[in-house]
Amino acid sequence: MKRIITYGTFDLLHYGHINLLQRAKALGDYLIVCLSSDEFNSLKGKKSYFNYEQRKKLLEAIRYVDLVIPETCWEQKKSDMHEYHIDIFVMGDDWKGRFDDLRDEGVEVIYLSRTPEISTTQIKETLHNTKK
Ligand code: C2G
Predict the structure, then answer these.
(1) 86 CB within 6 A, ligand 1
(2) Where are the alpha helices (DSSP H) in 38-75?
């Protein structure tokens, strides 16, 4: 059983996120999403519209997602690879190169192309500019 993991905030879930999760799952059999906590989002300089529990509920409803766990710090990835017996670490290619060191933990590191024309920031800006 090939186990995949990916990390992110996944706020205002959109088809760019789904494209990533679908392709990540296709690489193996079991997909874990490590979801940024509200506190970690602050560390990342992000303020999500939905809180952790709401974002977790949305992700758990996706057929490609088998488990959602919290991401609370940058440093947890190394131990996550061993704790969850990960075979493949996947991220969108906006992170290309940033996590290559995880290969030293014995996992494959794959960066998948981002869906270009959609982002949570863009959704927020569009809605803000079109509000009555
Ligand atoms: N993504 C994508 N296409 C988009 C938007 C996002 O493929 N149009 C991917 C990102 O590349 C990322 C995942 O969806 O792999 C989640 O995106 P974010 O929620 O923006 O995650 P991010 O803030 O990049 O957090 O420790 C890693 C961080 O937690 C990653």
Answers:
(1) no
(2) 38-43, 52-60
